[in-house]
Write a structure and sequence with these properties.
With about 120 residues, this protein is α+β, with helices and mostly antiparallel strands. It has a domain of about 80 residues: GIY-YIG endonuclease, CATH 3.40.1440. The chain has four helices and three strands; from the N terminus they run H-E-E-H-E-H-H. A three-stranded antiparallel sheet has the order 2-1-3, sandwiched between helices. A hairpin with a 4-residue loop joins strand 1 and strand 2. The longest helix is centred in the last third of the chain and has 15 residues. The radius of gyration is 27 Å and the shape is globular. The termini are far apart.
Length: about 120
């Protein structure tokens, strides 16, 4: 037992009578208490072309900007300008993906088109 105590006494990470810190200085301490990220399911509408686009993202402002101006290829490039017709926030990526899938179904698209007809009077 004395050997074991003697070994513990020389462990630099154990605080004891010496004033030395148990952690290395100069390194940031990262504490991950809880990271909370919102995901947004959105519907874009192009009144000019009467088209819709359904997607989800973690940053709606940046994604909307890329649909309207930054992207050089893809489906949304051909039907600019886009407006955000509907958006819904979810606390998890899985929840957002589930809602996106539901909106892309036949029933979901029917609901989206009725929402657009109510909102834009078409």
């Amino acid at each position: 037992m004395e050997q074991l105590v003697a070994r513990w006494a020389h462990n630099p990470k154990v605080a004891g009578s010496s004033p030395a810190s148990a952690t290395k200085q100069g390194r940031p301490v990262f504490r991950m208490a809880f990271l909370y990220c919102m995901f947004t399911v959105y519907v874009l509408y192009s009144a000019k072309h009467d088209k819709i686009y359904i997607g989800f993202t973690g940053d709606l402002a940046a994604r909307f900007s890329s649909h309207n101006s930054l992207a050089k290829k893809g489906y949304t490039v051909k039907f600019r300008p886009w407006e955000i017709a509907y958006s819904e926030e979810h606390g998890s990526k899985a929840g957002a993906m589930k809602k996106e899938k539901q909106l892309k179904s036949a029933t979901g698209r029917k609901w989206v088109w009725s929402l657009i007809a109510d909102k834009y009077g078409e």
